[in-house]
Predict the structure.
Amino acid sequence: MSEPVSPEALSTASSTRAERFRRERTRLGRRADTLFAGLTALAGLLVLIILAYMVLTTTNVALPVFRSQGLSFVTSATWRPADGQFGILAFVYGTLVTSAIALVIAVPLSLGVSLYLVEVAPRWLRGPVAYAVDLLAAVPSVVYGLWGVFVLLPLFLQPAAEFLSRTLGFIPIFAGPASGISYFGAGVVLAIMIVPIISSLSREVFRAVPVEDRHAAYALGATRWEMIRGAVLPRSRAGIVGATMLGLGRALGETIAVALLIGSRAEVGASILKPGYSIAALIANTFGEANPEGIRALVGAGVVLFAITIMINMAARMLVWRMVER
Amino acid sequence: MSAPAPKDPGRLQGRRPSPRRVWGDRLGTLAMLVATVLVLLPVGMILFQIAQKGLGTMSWEFLTQAMPYSYRKIGGGFFNALVGTAIMVGLATAVAVPLGVLAAIYLTEYGKKNLLATLIRFFSDVMTGVPSIFVGLFVYTAFVLPFGFGAVMGAAALAIIMLPIVVRSTEEMLKLVPRELKDASYALGAGTWQTTVRVVLPSALPGITTGVLLAVARAAGETAPLILTTLGAIEIVTKLVGAPISALPLAIFDGARSPFAAGQERAWAGALELLLIVLVFTLLARVAASRSRISR
């Protein structure tokens, strides 16, 4: 950035009124500059302060529960607020399982859409399809929840869950009795919610692959699919992982849609077709009737959720940043 | 679309791909198409079914009246929730936008690549990924415990959610302002502060507006933090502190959880209302973006 040339350096000793006036003004201007710089820096710092303050206050409130429960806070699956027993393992498990299901469904779909939009679709179709996919990101999560419970559940989730347990029931994770209100149901709706995140980022990553790489693959006689597999995908690996982790971060913290679809049963079971619970859903559902110690425990569960998502997010950001800076 | 174009001169010389490779290419293309259809399907379903189910209950009464005193009762509407959403999103915007724009100015005009700017940039990105329910827990422990539930608490949570979005989108827009424009301003003797306020901000304004509108749309749809900070109410509340207040997403959530048909129907109409509001803001954001002279 070019610094403004100091007027003192330029002006001679001549001090007509106009000269003096101008110098006065620039001095004032420079003071305003310093003030403005300070103000903006303060606003920037505020982001860091808020984040730090969030971590400190919540951890501080949850500290008594962390102390009294010790490590069993995260290793025990017994959650009995009335007896002062707070083990969040079942909720951590549910959070991880629903997010994993969401990723298994959303990643291939998102990559497929993005590849289609970047490599295959005719130019006139790209804008509208991309817009429609991005529209999914604008839908509020409570709307997903409502739609999931009253439309998708009877129409698809329940039949699909029953079908899975009928055909693949011998595998423990698909064991019946099957319910659409389950890890599976919540995971499917989560998948729809994170598709726009993963696909919009992976679209950018695919676009960033140099056209020379594509031409080189074609010059070697590759078909388009071979070109995608040989030139586009390998170049985009870090970006895809980053996009996936951002989607994961969103899925882990998603509350409302999961609260409506997961079934609110605190159990650690192998089958994904049975009702379960997640950290965020636990907080949203039981916050209203919790006693003071229960609230501390819920805040503690929130801190654990925050820690998980923040680590995933930081790793994802680093990957995406490295991609973009190249 | 399909494998090699026969008129491609380079291809005619060489060997054609074997059938196996041609079929691989076709299968790959098919897989991409199927994925696209599978993603577009829920988009269409959600829009269509929300419109269909929502219009059934949508009425002038729904838009202008507050909730009846029981979820079981038919009639009434979400006007109380609409008022709550307007108050809280308005307050949150009034706080988050100036702060976010100032922070973005620091990033592009002053900090650039120094350590503080890098940290702010990185942690705003991280902050966009913080679960909104955690933000709710924070506001609960920091502000609701001492001051009670209320619109200001909900607005604080929404502002925290909006802030990093505004910072990062504004920064992107400020970066696009051509250097020549700034240099011209500096050459006329303006300082950084004058250049920023008179030249950089005006030319980036449409882009900044886009980011702000998207942040508003996001805040208007947030439910989780409000459960912990505003609690919800069935009457119209205009007090800012010390009184639980409703919001559209909260009212929809309560309706969806209620076992009564009347409550669920109101939830559908509310979902339509909320979706329309969010879509209008998203659309306005697009319009603002297309107005931007310095678009990418």
Notes: The beta strands of chain A are 79-80, 85-86.
